[in-house]
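As described in the Methods, two query proteins were run sequentially through the folding procedure within a single session, without resetting any intermediate state between them. The first query and its resulting structure tokens are shown here.
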Amino acid sequence: GKIELPPLQQPPDVLHELLTSNTPTSKKFRSHIRQYNAAFAFTSLGVSLDESLFQGTGAYAFRIHGQLAHRTGSLLPAAGQPIRYAQIYIIDSSEERVEARRQGNLNAQRGRRPANANDFVDADVWRELETMIEENHRFFGVYKQAYQIMREKPVEEQRDLQVHLRFKKHTDRRRYNLPNVAEGEIAAIIPGPGNIAHDSRDIVLRLNDGPLSRISDRHPAYHPLHYVLLFPYGEMGWHEEIPLAGENEAGRYKKVTRLMFMQHRLHTRFDQPASIFYACKLFHQYIVDGWACIEQSDLMFLRTHQNQLRRESYRGLADALNANDERDTADIGQPIILPSSFINSPCCMMQLFQDAMSICRYYLHPDLFITMTLLKKLDLLIVLLSTF
């Protein structure tokens, strides 16, 4: 096909066993995989969840409200604050790291679940996962390197010092090659004061007293920094420089879009590991996260390309001014027009309605509205299904 991405690697044995085995430990791990992932993630997930869906007895559903974002903070916690996310990887003692993750999980679950919310924690599993991430995840070394760079600076410079994780474009335009930390394609060696200019796609790290900063979803580390149990090696996610395979000069697209990337990742292949599909609730979250990135990107494009949508042809401010009414022009505002190509927009729904009415105009109005019902225990149905 036109999309060639490096296949995801087979996960380390310890993670593969937890994802695929039917032992009690593995089943408990998969039941609480979102909590395990949050404990080992380098970044936090900023989103408003619909808690009402978690109370039902049916299939699990991960539903969000509003905007979704990944955030990162300083590498050292503020005074009196718990150690969380990437800050835990800076701790030297393994036992202290395990305790920090346990406390972080308790704080995250407090108020949502009963006092035994931490009963799922298996200390042996946590130690095995921690060792796995330290030995395999490429960003573990990057964060340690960033921390060492800032600690070596004079104390008076540390407060305003920043380290940028910047993605470098590939030289091979024909293929999407996996960035290599050792070769500097993911660079953690761009230190400087807090007032220096930086690319909006950079991941900016501070040593301490730094506010939470939003990570650009255009950075290829956007997903691997949070979904460490889906991408235990830190495999890169989507970015703007992934070319389509082969010559495509006359085509509409010359680069792999976000949607193309997610479609490729969510398609099983016989010759590639399917470990992410065994991640249960975490896999659901990853799909929603990917969809949110696509949706937010489309909305931002429409917002910044209103002139191309012939905004002036929509009667808004001009009509209000020509009407000579007494409304304050500041109250009229500047509407953002969503075209019919954006699913569920008013223009889209009106277009679908008009199409439906066109069918009625051509074929006349329907005479019957038929509802089909089916009994799942029908004898004939049981006989027919038993042949498959």
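Immediately afterward, the second query was submitted; its sequence and tokens are:
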Amino acid sequence: MTVVTALTTSAGSMWPSCVSPSSTSRHPAAAGEASRTPESEVAPVISQHALAPVNHLSPLASRPHPHASTSSPLEHGAAHRSSFSLPRADTSPGSYMSMSPGNSVPASPASAGGGARRSSHVAQRSVFGFIVGHHYTRIDDGPPLISVAPSSLSATTGALVRHPLVIVLVTCSVSLFFLSNSVASLWNGLSDSQCNYRNGSNIDVFQDYNISAPDGSAIATFIGRGATLTNFYVKDKNGHFRDVVLGYDGRRKYLTDPEYAYYGAVVGRYANRIKNATFSIPPLRHLDEPLPPGMTVYKVAANEQKGNTALHGGKWGYSRAGWSLIKHEADRITFGLRDRGAEGFPGTVHVLASYTLGPDAVWTTRLSGQVKAGKATPMMMSSHVYWNLDGYGYDTSGAVGKTTSKGALDHVLKIKSSSYVSTDEILVPSGPITRIASNASPLDFRKARIIGSRFSRTDGLCGGDCTGYDTCFIYDQRVPREPVMELISPGSGISLSVRTNQPAVQVYTCNHQGSTPRKHSHGGPDAGFYEKHSCVVLEQQGRIGAIREPEWGEDQIYTPTRAHDWWSEYSFSTV
């Protein structure tokens, strides 16, 4: 048996980040104005590193979508289009950088009302190692999978750098990956004027990027930090747009809020919880017993239940990483990430997060993971969006007011599921897959019903001393031809149906919310905070904790010859 853990450190849980000493922080505020980030929001110093000569990326400009609705909440309803090549980053062992107090990442100010933005994105060196839990690692030194225009990168001398690429498209139920003839040749020294977070992102990870459906039926905003969805506008039964997802107006809060709840982010390398933050390859359930020869046990960064679980990939995971921008068009955007053994997981993984808005408000999300080097690894990614289809009673008509509804508890939910994963008081699997006993069970959503209708009987379904749902439902079908679940707000009339290639969904009813100020689109700041049980998270994913439950028969171990492919389609309509 081999046990893989890491050296204990006293550096704490905050991973380092960096900017040049002369830079300032500005990001779009709720009303479109730029504001300075207070020093209290800046990560503490861990280390500093000399910066390489500047290489600048070409400016990215907004271009209106030819079919965008003129009545969109963002006024222009479209994102700028970009396709560009990237500078190389330092790959020397141990290179890492940090932020000095008072300095932070600059972002281009937005025009009032969310109008078209034009920004000069300056690439940076920003090769991060970080000390976390028991492991010192470097998660990334730039975007791994790149679609580029071959002469778009200019250095400070004005010279153009060209990198011919070979593009390989794989369509048989696996991810779409872009391979260059020499990926390593794309990473050179990044700039000293903008240091993003943790993985050498080629963009300001707090900058907004908008996409819109070709018919103007939906508009979404993303940031590179966590490849995060920050706003999602669809029309209600009266034809008014409502923002149906939770988040922060101040984008840096996605990094600094101590109560951060994975709002809208990609979670990984392994979503949900790993018992004792420990797993083996091949998988075994009981790791406290004598193990057979050849077994490797891994200890990853624990971040919950006093070290008893690793939640959503560990202390930082993919949700707080600075993803790179791979491709951005009017109706779609792709972010990329290279994970080099972060949080103690084995192997190097290249990840893509691709988002597309189609006609009739159909949003497609695809998360692709490819093991590129080293050992086999567990992988289970998910999208962690907090939904309130009522938009907290606020729309863009101008005639808005505080909602009198009970939030998500008034939503109607239907799930094609006859079984679930039973869990203990710390929400790790406690036994075999359990059948839903009867139609009277609070877990029975096979027929559509109001989420709060049996809420008083949910004690323990979200852990010890908790009322609400935090439950993994197993779908009855695995073929994603038909919707497997539906969520409806009677107040707004907005309906959301989901198709997915995942076998399960984790339903979480915001049992611990209450300290996050509402966004402007939800009546904030005057309307106060996002209330407990006022939203619902629908995490399409594998069976939780299956890495410790081999008898379930779900293979969550991936290798260079087996890619991880996560796909979900969210269709919006009105009833």
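The CA atoms of residues 62 and 116 lie 5 Å apart. We note this only descriptively and draw no conclusion about the first query from it.
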